[in-house]
Amino acid sequence: MRSLENNFQAKLFLIFSFVLVLATLETLSFLSWKFLLPPSIKVSVQSLCVPSSAEPIMNPNAFWHHELNPRHDVYRGQTNSEGYKSFDFKMPKPANELRVICVGDSTVEGHGLLVDETFPYYLQQLLKRIVSRSTNYKSVSVLNAGIGSHNSAFALCHLALRLIHYQPDVVVLKVGYNDYIPYILPGMRYDYTHAFPAPYMRYISRNPYWSLARHSYLLKAMGILLFNDEVNVPYQDFSGYVSKEKLEAMDYSSNEDKFYIYAENIRSMIVLCKARGIRIYLLDLPTSPNPKHYAGNNLFKSQKYRTLIKRFESEAARVAEEEGVSVIPTADVLESADFRDHCHTLISGNMKIARKIADFVFHIYPETESNRAK
Fold first, then answer.
1. What are the backbone dihedrals phi and psi of residue 146, each rounded to the nearest 5 degrees, phi first?
2. Torsion angle (degrees, nearest 10) of CA 163, 111, 330, 314
3. Which of 5, 20, 210, 271 is 20 to 30 A from 367 (CA-CA)?
4. Alpha-carbon distance values, 362 to 100, 155, 201, 357 (Å)
5. Cα–Cα distance between 124 and 30 in angstroms, integer?
6. What is the fold, at CATH topology level, of the domain defined by 97-196+243-367?
7. Which pLDDT belongs to residue 206?
8. What is the pLDDT of residue 243?
9. How many other C-beta atoms lie within 10 A of the C-beta of residue 204?
């Protein structure tokens, strides 16, 4: 009897010791995760630790990020066959079709809005009415090629390598809100690779281990050692390189003399379009006049952010004047109620923006036979 009791106590001691060791390792793994691991590794592991039933959501999101991810919940059912928040369009472009491509960031894409709530959608509806009664064009298509997170360098690549081949007659460009990231980091490079050092294209493989590791820092730590190749797949967003404190400070003093880089990105897009016989128009970069959109825990609450955007806006205006293209003003028609946050517009604001653009496009293409196809 005593022997059985001793065996039971021994087993109980082993179980207790095992649990204590696991708890200790879990605690040490948590502390390592919190204080020792670089942000890039943590971001990569977190992207792997998805439920086994979940679809991958990490598609390209850097220089080669030229389409939205249809598997992401935000874009599910919202993208066309080319990966844009827009309707499908024909290629090659039909004869007698006026084609407009709107290029830019999430303010063009329509962050948080549906396809038919964006300004490119409203622009297409307006132009359809104008084209049907006032020009020799038989149809019109407006492609919303806005991509959230794009800056001027990404937009330049996007336009040169992809959008130009969609045969636009008109390009409407609105980009600059995301250029603040390269400008608050030292070591400025022309292609912004000092801020985005590697394309972070990733398609998450279905390794069941990571589904288990979601709930354990110890399993995450073991996974980093066991599946190092998966962890080190190039995936990175700027949060791995820019601290929250640096974002909130918005200190671009180290690049005060390098605003010409943004300007030259804009110029390159203008020159590219003009060389192809494509009319290009720039949009201004309005920010919300509502103080509530900058209050609280908001990365853009610093007045420096709005000052920085104004710098980009003035650089774009300078280049536009030198290259003989127009900047379409929209800030004068937008009110606080037209913004959802510091720069993204709501439906009411998008309708106003579309009207301003439609006036310009209509005057570009009067009812003359010579303007039908470029």
1. -75, 135
2. -70
3. 271
4. 12, 25, 40, 9
5. 52
6. Rossmann fold (3.40.50)
7. 61
8. 67
9. 19
Write the CA distances from 171 to 97, 142, 282, 334, integer angstroms.
Answer: 14, 10, 8, 22
CB atoms within 10 A of CB 312: 22
Which two structure tokens, joined as six digits, stand for 78?
């919202």
Task: Say how far apart CA 215 and CA 225 lie, in whole Å.
Answer: 17
Best CA proximity match to 183, nearest among 248, 253, 243, 265? 253
Report the alpha-carbon distance of residue 321 to residue 326 in Å, rounded. 7
- The residue behind tokens 């649990």 is 19
pLDDT mean values, one per 10 residues, the chain (374 residues)? 70 86 93 85 77 51 60 78 91 94 97 95 93 82 93 94 96 96 90 70 63 90 85 49 74 94 98 97 96 79 89 98 97 96 96 94 56 36
Distance separating alpha carbons of residues 223 and 207, to the nearest angstrom: 11
- Cα–Cα distance, 209 to 218 (Å, whole number): 12
Helical ranges in 140-278 per DSSP H: 152-161, 180-183, 208-213, 217-226, 228-231, 244-249, 259-275
The CA distance from 105 to 155, in Å, is 8
pTM (2 d.p.): 0.75
Q: How far is CA 176 from the centre of its chain?
A: 12
**Strands across the sheet with 279-283, in order?**
139-146, 97-104, 170-174, 279-283, 327-328
Tell me if 329 sits within 8 A of 285, measured CB to CB: no
Give the residue extent of every domain in the chain.
2-55+202-234, 97-196+243-367
Angle (nearest 5°) at CA 27 between 23 and 31: 170
The 3-state DSSP class for residue 134 equals helix
Q: Is 254 in contact with 220 (CB distance < 8 Å)? A: no
Amino acid identity for residue 70 in this structure = P
**Measured CA distances, 20 to 25, 27, 136, 192, 342 (Å):** 9, 10, 80, 49, 50
End-to-end C-alpha distance for the chain, whole angstroms: 99
Contact residues for 268 (Cβ-Cβ < 8 A; gap 6+): 156, 160
What is the predicted pLDDT for the residue at 241? 55
CA pair distance 34, 40, nearest whole angstrom: 13
User: Three-state SS for 225?
Assistant: helix
Collapsed DSSP state (helix, strand, coil) of residue 327: strand
Strand-pair category, 279-283 with 97-104: unpaired
